[in-house]
Design a protein that fits this description.
Layout (H helix, E strand, L loop, with lengths): L7 H18 L4 H39 L22 H7 L1 E3 L6 E3 L3 E8 L5 E5 L9 E6 L2 H10 L1 H6 L5 H18 L7 E3 L13 E3 L4
Antiparallel strand pairs: 1-2, 3-4, 3-5, 6-7
Helix pairs in contact: 1-2, 4-6
């Protein structure tokens, strides 16, 4: 209760006493009836004021709660739970083809269509990276690169293997990838060394289609 204000219980008791006094005064108690009427009017004014203040306070609380309330997002509406295009791959196809992502161009492809580099530890405890035949049957953190000269050069230029394997990668590893890519392309009669890569916006899992390698004269 605020200091200087009469509680509703006290005000109600005063009105009840005023009514009893008015009834006891009869027709000749004009002064008593006047005082009783004044008490009732004061009680009615106080009741109206309290009702008004309560309504204002309730509206202010509701408005404040609306202003400070955070917008609630259902888990199913969050971006991380939305279906991912995955460059046109389905989950079943990813499992069936054992798909991996190229460290250079971020294209999703079957594991068999990519070069593999593996981070291994030697008997002396040193970390090194093996590729080609040395990586077959070896377990460890792996990184993959498309079997093209363009991707091998992009991986070397951007240190993509270093980021994917989280270790230092010798230039000899990139040179080995370039040699294998050149041998494959020469056998097929193609050369992608001068191709330009067009990368879509956003993360690779959100791409509807992978990036494109465009010939320089296109």
């Amino acid at each position: 209760m605020r200091r200087g204000r009469t509680s509703p219980k006290d005000a109600g008791a005063a009105v009840a006493l005023a009514r009893v006094a008015r009834a006891a005064a009869g027709d000749e108690g004009d002064d008593v009836r006047g005082r009783a009427d004044a008490v009732e009017r004061a009680h009615a004014a106080a009741t109206t004021l309290r009702t008004y203040e309560s309504a204002i306070a309730s509206a202010a609380r509701a408005q404040r709660n609306r202003d400070v309330a955070k917008r609630k997002t259902r888990p199913r509406d969050r971006a991380c739970n939305q279906p991912k295009p995955r460059q046109g791959w389905t989950r079943a196809a990813l499992r069936e083809r054992n798909a991996r992502t190229c460290a250079a161009c971020e294209r999703i492809a079957a594991k068999a269509d990519l070069f593999r580099a593996v981070r291994v530890k030697t008997a002396s405890g040193e970390t090194r990276v093996v590729v080609g035949d040395d990586a077959r049957g070896v377990n460890g953190r792996s990184a993959y690169v498309c079997k093209t000269r363009a991707c091998a050069a992009r991986a070397a230029k951007g240190k993509a293997m270093q980021r994917a394997l989280r270790c230092n990668v010798d230039q000899g590893v990139y040179d080995a990838l370039a040699r294998e890519a050149r041998a494959l392309e020469e056998a097929m009669g193609v050369d992608t060394s001068d191709y330009v890569f067009l990368r879509p916006e956003g993360t690779s899992a959100r791409w509807k289609a992978p990036g494109e390698w465009i010939p320089p004269d296109a």
